[in-house]
Amino acid sequence: MVRKVLMTALTLFSLHAQTLSQSLYEITSSYYEQRTELVKAEALMTDLFQNGYSDPLRAAFSDAGLNLSIIDKKRGIVRLCALEESGEGVFYVRTFADAKTKDMLSIPHRFHDIRTGPIGIGLFQKSAYRAAAFNTAHRDVVDMAHTGQTLFELFHKVYARLYSHESIFQLHGFSAKNRQSESAASLQIIVSSASMTPSYKAEELVLKFAAQKWEAGLFPRDVNELGGTTNTTAKMLAETGYDGFIHIELESEFRKTLMSDKNVFRRFGGALR
Q1: What is the pLDDT of residues 222-264, one digit of tens each?
Q2: pTM above 0.90?
Q3: Are β-strands 131-134 and 189-192 bridged in parallel, bridged antiparallel, or unpaired?
Q4: Which of 39, 51, 109, 250 is the most buried (most CB within 10 A)?
Q5: What single DSSP character describes residue 195?
Q6: Can you tell me the distance from the alpha carbon of 27 to that of 198, in angstroms, rounded to the nearest whole number?
Q7: Range list of β-strands (E), the chain
Q8: Spatial separation of the C-alpha atoms in residues 160 and 239, rounded to whole Å
């Protein structure tokens, strides 16, 4: 299934996106090892966001057990992951200052929520996001949306501190046939702030999706499930005062359409901007 979805992504997106997709799918893990020291990694991530790639910074990351590599020199895209893959995640930063958007994408369940990985890496390429984070181990091994004190969570923390007025869009997937309510089963997209109080940004995004004639609902106003209220990353960010986290659930058939229809994909990306 993963290989089939990857090949669909390579067909849908450009050669540049193929390079990004390949760089993502070569980083996977069947286990998770908790990192015991995050202070140095936080300082290095901050340096990366503020100053971009350098050979001394790459060496410093290596000393901390992390690999910083250039994926696309022309576009200033670098990838960060563990030197020995341990399920901690893989992260992308667009280091050039002229990125079309300073927003971030977050994909915590790319193996469980099928197609969210290719959709995320495609959005990162097409809309020139500032950063993106992807899990590298299956949700059954470690759930990056519900596990605290991880490198994955730390990447979000550093980004939110430096870009406090920008948004983090975290993509998830659901199946209409498995929903508990008719309201959820009737929707293609469910948006929330991962809290019981929707933010202005979340409300605005639902309106943008509705303008595209998609069945979109806002938690908890329109639907009472899949609101992401137990999401540990969202809770950590809220504690710091950051209010730009947006939790987006995509129904399985809608994800298929995003992968097969370039026009729908383009419109979806445009709504996020």
Answers
A1: 999 999 999 999 999 999 999 999 999 999 999 999 999 999 9
A2: yes
A3: unpaired
A4: 250
A5: S
A6: 34
A7: 66-72, 77-82, 90-94, 104-107, 131-134, 168-174, 189-192, 216-218, 245-251
A8: 12
